[in-house]
Amino acid sequence: MEASFHMSLPCLSAKDTRDFYSHIGASFGRSTESWVDVNFFGHQITFIETDKYNFSSPNYVFEGKILPAFHFGIILDTGAWKAVYKKLEEQQLDLVTESTFLKEKVGEHRSFFVKDPNDYMLEFKTFMDPNSIFSI
Questions:
Q1: Does an H or E element contain 39, and which?
Q2: How does strand 72-75 pair with strand 121-127?
Q3: Would residue 108 be called left, alpha or beta, if left means φ above 0 and alpha means ψ between -120 and 50 degrees?
Q4: Do 36 and 47 contact (CB within 8 A), yes or no?
Q5: What is the strand order of the sheet 43-49 is part of?
Q6: Are strands 43-49 and 35-40 parallel, antiparallel or unpaired?
Q7: Block means of pLDDT (10 residues each) for the chain, length 136 residues?
């Protein structure tokens, strides 16, 4: 059975959040002035306005790159990944760590991160062999 994930996260502004995700090409479901359902590549993220919140987001090192420990993301086919990268780059957003990881190993993938207006780090991945996503 295919399944989609649902995640609910606090946000500082539902409007700014909607604007940001619309630039990625996301569509939207139900919403009010204080919350919005984002269709993030077929998955539902509900952003709800809250008071200021604080996440401790320590980094970690993977293959010599400093990466954010607290992040979420999406795995796309290579064509869609390149299109999103180009779209965000054209908007002059601060794209972080566009790299190839696990080069010539099981799980080889390209990845980059971008911060949304709520300070969440989003990771966009594309695997060289889509069948290796969960391989050991």
A1: strand 35-40
A2: parallel
A3: beta
A4: yes
A5: 6-11, 43-49, 35-40, 27-31
A6: antiparallel
A7: 77 93 92 90 89 68 80 90 91 83 92 88 91 80
